[in-house]
Amino acid sequence: xxxxxxxxxxxxxxxxxxxxxxxxxxxxxxxxxxxxxxxxxxxxxxxxxxxxxxxxxxxxxxxxxxxxxxxxxxxxxxxxxxxxxxxxxxxxxxxxxxxxxxxxxxxxxxxxxxxxxxxx
Length: 120
Fold this sequence. Notes:
Helices cover 8% and strands 48% of the residues. The protein is mostly beta strands. InterPro entries: DUF1618.
């Protein structure tokens, strides 16, 4: 759930669309205002390209979301092991989705008994 100001709020769902060569996102949005009735909600779905580097495709192909975090006019779909799908301007006319990889944790490879960000 995301809020814009005092009167607008909405729900957003991000679905992954992928084939063996590319990945993109389908953003589903339900937007409501506190002044509108239940039949006046705006609903839409948009296919959006995901900005990612070619070598990151495999991560997106097997993407699983563990948590969703709202931030200002953005939402972040988080995979604790792989990274973040960040959607900027969720309610806007031109939302953008980008992938941000989590830093590699080489320390855990040397010391597997140590707690890492993946275990938090």
